[in-house]
Each structure stands twice: as structure tokens, then as C-alpha cells.
Amino acid sequence: MAQPLDATTIEEQGLWQRVAEEQAALDRSGFILQEPEVEAYLQSIVDRLATSGGLQAEDFSVKLVRDPTLNAFAYPNGRLYLHTGLLARMLNEAQLASVLAHEMVHATHEHALKSQRSLKTKTGILQAISLSAPIAGDYTPLVDLLGVYGTAAAVSGYSKGLETEADEVGWQHMRACGYDTREAPAVFRLLMADLSAHERKEPFFFGTHPKLVDREKNFARLNKSARDLADGEKGEERFAEATRRVLLLNGELEMRAGRHDAARDQLWRYRAADPASVRVRWLIGENERVAGAHGDQKEARTLLEEALAMDETFAPAHRSLGILLYRAGELAAAAPHLRRFLDLDRTAHDRAYLEAYLRLCEPTPPPAASEAAPTPAPTSES
Amino acid sequence: MTDSATPQTAKKIQVTANVPAGWARFTPEKDLVMTKDGFLLQTIRITRAAYGSKIENTDRTITKGMEDQDAAQLLLDAFAADQSRHNLAIVSNTPATIDGHPGFRIEVTYKTPEGLTIHETAYVALVDDSYVIARYTAPDRHYHELHSGAFEQVVQSLKIAPLPAKKG
């Protein structure tokens, strides 16, 4: 397998310069997750895949993007990006390795440069993105963020031939590492089922049904040609331990994006791995609360009360429970939680709403007769 | 451009606002869009959306009868998920009344992918048949503060009429 692209021609140097600028913008965006343990784990898999393929491990690096959509992409210089949304849906290390190996091949086999040569101009690349990714709709914000090369890699992918090459060489690397390659088609079936179940349309390559079908078919075909598939490693426990924080982080992102079913799934998986977590109880309860008619308000209340029983100073649970009780008309029960939240979080951005609720929960009693007389204004002599 | 504030109506959305003196109104008919020195330096945009329209970057919608606090949180979550708004910070989030309608005011700062810090203030009026958003966007440095008074006057001047009933 070839190394990631070296800048040996003027054309390549231009591409590298552009890629470096795009990566710098992405890296300072605030969307790159700082989770050293997860990053180290991802890097260890990339290193393992690289070494097994006779590559220099240090030529590859991987970063995690805080985003609940299904996406992973590679720049031609060996930098890989993986969205938390994709990682949170995977079940084991072999599934993760299948996606990372596929992306690494895009870098090592110069797919960006080959695409650039075939399209000739930036305009051509942009046109290709708009033509090949119709569900992306308005792709301009993606180009703003990812740049032209990042968008090409993340949204439209490359030509069918190049994508198939990435599947085939990636599959070989999975085999060389000893991974269970049956998990490669499995992860794409998992993603397809997820998209279908929620009738979700996503802008990125790994969230696009036809692209997933292609991946699944290619990996299934490759598996048919191989022996000893059952001997491969899945790495379920290692994966669960290393990535469980991502379930908590991405579960909250899913909730805030209104994907309450995905949030519920990921947060409960996290809770199973960390039953003592107060935060996950709050998040599961809050997810049910904000899901409204699609949520279970009774369960929300139970979980929020559980969270507070474990840690009475956990401010967000007081806020959630206070609002839940206020909206249920239980004003006397809501008041202490709203008040406690406002005491605990002095900088809450929605303080004005909660103070208004609190005034309705705790109407000011009419002043006593002795207090009703106006207090004389202080004078300069006093 | 006029010497004094001039009422302008976007007929398709049935919203009228005073365009501040010295500001220019641009006419995509659907919205009220105005600027003094150019869109990159300050823009006020007033739009109207149907309840139930999907909010960008989320699977969520503002629905009729939604609490102002929930609608505000929804928009802030959508801003936070927008990858063209880097390092989003919430400056304020308060209930507000716009032309007699309940609603809210949110104020945020964020960086563009090019690194410019933008300051954005938005009022949202939760009207009977739809919701109206008035947004003021300007670079945080110098420009936002310079024209925020003009924006507040535009919001004060807003007149929101019911949308005509759809035929058929």
C-alpha cells in the first residue's frame, strides 16, 4: 500500500497548501473533541492498520468531530476525521477499523489528487459535489467549514471505482490486522437500518443510503472470497471501554438535535456501562422531558429524582425537574427546584424565564397592615 | 436610502418595519433586509416562518403554542450545532414582547471559519399563524455596538399583520 501523498509536483504542493488551510480552519472551529483517551484509542487502531499494511504509522492521525451526523473522512495528507455520531452507533472495534481502513486508503491511494485531475478545476469539484450529493441540499456551509477537499471527501465521496478500491484495500488491511471482516458489512447494515428506522436524511457520505449499500455489497463480496472469517477479532470489550464517553457526549448532541430515539439508545448504553453516573440519569430524564409527547414524562421525573438523590447539588437536574413540575401544574413542588437551580447556577442564560416561573409558583403574599405604610425616603440630614 | 426612518413592508410576509435613516433596504420580496455600510459590516434581516418548518442542523421544529423558553433553547441548540458558527457563546436569553406578541430575545457571539467574531441578536415573535425572526448580525468589534440601537428601534417599529388565508 502506498504512503499518503507526498508533495512532489506543483499541482500536489497546491493541493497540500489548500488542505493545510482547510484543516487549520476545522481544527480551530471548536468542533474538535478534546478527549485524549478516546483519541489515543482511535490512534492505536490507525497505527495498527498502518503497521500491518507496511505503512509509517506516524503518517496518519485521527481527530474526533463533535457532531451527531454519520460521517468520517480523510484528507490526502493522512489526517482522518470521525464524527461522534458515527462512532456512537458502532458496536465493536472491527466495525470502527473497517471505516478507518477505508478512509486511510483514500489518503494512501491519492484519491483526492486523482479526482482533482479528472475534474480539473475547483468549480468542477463543486459541481461534482452538488450533482452527486443531492440530499446535501445547500452545500455552501459545508464548503465553508470543510473546504473544497474536505467537502469532496465527506459529502460526495469519490468515484465508484475509487470507493471500491478503498473498500478492497481497506478490507485487506483489516484481514492483515486479524479483525473480523464480517463486521464490515455489518456496520453498514447497522447504519442503513438506523437511517431507515428514523426516516433520516443526512448530508454526509456515510449517512447516504446508496453509498452504504455499495459499501455493504463490496464487503460482503470480499468476505465470500475469504476463509477463516470466524477467527477474526471483534474487540467488543476494548471498544466499549474506550469509547463509552462518546455515548454520553453524543447522546446529548442527539437530544439537542431533536433525535430523541437515538439519544435514548446511546444514553441507556452509557448508563449500562457506568451505572453510578448522575449526569447520564439527568440526560435520560431531560431527553424524555424535552421529547414532549414522544417522551415518557413519568420516567423523566423518576430519573431526575434519582439523579438528585445521588447528588443534591447537580444543578441541571433541579432545572429540569423544576420545569417538568411547573408545566405539570405542580407549582408548590416545582418552586424549591427552580429556586435551588438559580442558587446553584448564578450564570444560567435562561434565568429570566425561570424567575418568572418562580414568581408564579411563589406568589408574593399581600403585605401585612403594619408593613403597608410607605417607608419615608431617607433625607440628606438623616 | 432616506434621511429619516421610513416604514417599509415586505408584502409576502406582511411585516412592516422602519428602515433607519441612512440605511438601504434590499428587496428579496419575502424578507426585509437592510444594511448601512454593506452586508459584511451589519445586516438586519426580518423573516417569517411557518410553525412546523424544520430548523436547520436539527430534526426539531417550533410548533404553535410552544413555550418561549423552549423555542429559544431550540434556536440556541441549532446555532450550537451549526458548524459555520465556531466557538458559540450565549450572551443573553430573555423573554420579550414584539408588537404585542409573546416571544424572546437571544444574543450570541461566534467566530466565522475565517476567524472573524460575529455578534448576533435575534428577536423572535411567536405570532398566531407563524413566527417572525428579526436578526441583527455584525462584527463584534466596533460594528455591533455601533448599530445595536438602530436595530432595537427597528424591532420597536415592527408591525406584524396576519398572513392572508391560503386559497383552496
Radius of gyration of chain A: 26 Å
Oligomer: heterodimer
Largest sheet data of chain B:
7 strands, antiparallel
List segments of chain A where confidence is low: pLDDT < 50 over at least 5 consecutive residues: 128-140, 372-382
| Rg over alpha carbons of chain B | 16 Å
Q: Tally the helices of chain A.
A: 18
Portion in beta strands of chain B = 35-45%
> Judging from the principal axes of the Cα atoms, what is the shape of chain A?
elongated
Approximate helicity band of chain A: 55-70%
User: What is the tally of beta strands of chain A?
Assistant: 3
Biggest interface and residues each = A-B, 25 and 31 residues
- Structure annotation, total helices of chain B: 2
Order of helices and strands of chain B: EEEEEHEEEEHE
Average pLDDT of chain B works out at: 91
Bin the strand percentage of chain A: under 5%
Compute the separation of the termini of chain B in Å.
40 Å
- Measured between the Cα atoms of the first and last residue of chain A, the distance is 90 Å
**Overall mean pLDDT of chain A:** 84
Structural class of chain B: alpha+beta
Descriptive report:
The complex is a heterodimer of chains A (about 375) and B (about 170). Chain A has about 375 residues and is mainly alpha-helical. Chain A folds into two domains: about 220 residues, no CATH class; about 90 residues, Serine Threonine Protein Phosphatase 5, Tetratricopeptide repeat. In chain A, about 65% of the residues lie in helices and about 5% in strands. A three-stranded mixed sheet of chain A has the order 1-3-2. In chain A, about 45% of the residues are buried. With about 170 residues, chain B is an alpha+beta fold. Helix content of chain B is about 20%, strand content about 40%. Chain B has two helices and ten strands; from the N terminus they run βββββαββββαβ. In chain B, strands 3-4-5-9-8-7-6 form a seven-stranded antiparallel sheet, with helices on both faces. In chain B, β1 and β2 form a beta hairpin. Chain B is globular, with a radius of gyration of 16 Å. The mean pLDDT of chain B is about 90. The chains are: A mainly alpha (about 375), B alpha+beta (about 170). At the A-B interface, α7 and α17 of A face α1 and β6 of B.
